[in-house]
Amino acid sequence: MSAPAMTAAAARAGSRSRSWRPAAGHVFVSGYVVLLVAFGIVPTVYALNLAFTDAEGRFAGLANFVRTAQDYRFLAAVGHVATYLVLWLVTLTVLVLVLALLVHRLTAGWSRAVLRFVYYVPGALAGASSVLLWLFMLDPSVSPVDGIVRALWGSTFVAVVAPGHLPWLFTIIAFWTGAGGWIVIMYGALNSIPHEVIEAARVDGAGPLRTALRVQLPMLRKWIVYMLILSLAAGTQLFVEPQLISQASFGVVGTDYSLNQLAYLYAFDQNDFNGSAAIAIDLLIVALCCAGLFVAKGGLFDAD
Predict the structure, then answer these.
(1) Distance CA 61, CA 65 (A)
(2) CB 50 within 8 A of CB 273
(3) Burial per residue of 33-50, b for 16 or more beta-carbon CB atoms within 10 angstroms, e otherwise
(4) Which of 68, 79, 86, 220 fits a 20 to 30 Å CA distance from 25?
(5) What pTM was estimated for this model as a whole?
(6) Counting runs of H as helices and runs of E as strands, what totals does the chain give?
(7) Structural contact between residues 276 and 263, judged by C-beta atoms closer than 8 angstroms
């Protein structure tokens, strides 16, 4: 074998040996991969199996999907979740970006740390605890802001939690619980923008508003897409809020308000785990399609 050929063979062998050598990154993500397989991939495969089989385990094709879609409660639940998602994602995006820009621009020193902590505190409450707190906030008879509640939604708790008000109420609850963490994240992303870029915009005559619209927000595009994807995934799983409000209102709000509630009823009231799995797969498909659209339009994985 000639010397160049031996050199090429040795280079290929060295490349193969290096490719199989575990790196530090592999060790760091190994725990996540195990949890992803155990609590993400395996349950998804199990749900897919249930969705395409009948109660006896025979292949059923799309029968479970057709049957659940023809349920009189299905389209209503789809409309409820879709309305909530539109309100939630639009409100979250606008207010989080505005508040992050204000904190980044108008505060300095210790006040920034205080504001970031204040924004983050509501997110420390678990979902059920947050909803229980808001049940008191929305009851005009005990609410500390009863004047605002009465002016916006009504003078009784039943009037406040009327089905037409629920998308806005769930949006407020979700924003109060989850937006603070995103404000902190967007604030950190704003700090990652090189100071020279901001100075160049100022030299070119851009004011605060134009700098935010033309420089800062475009550079936050990937962070915004990331926020939308995770918030969409959480929003499609709407369950705790309508479930607790249904119990607190003694049935004024139905137990089939959201798709997750409907899937729960299929599984544990009707003992129809195949139909429940079909609804879960419907949610998964919609979430994946929307996430793919966000990734494609937002360039989440584009190299800078």
Answers:
(1) 9
(2) yes
(3) eeeeeeeeeeeeeebeeb
(4) 220
(5) 0.83
(6) 17, 0
(7) yes
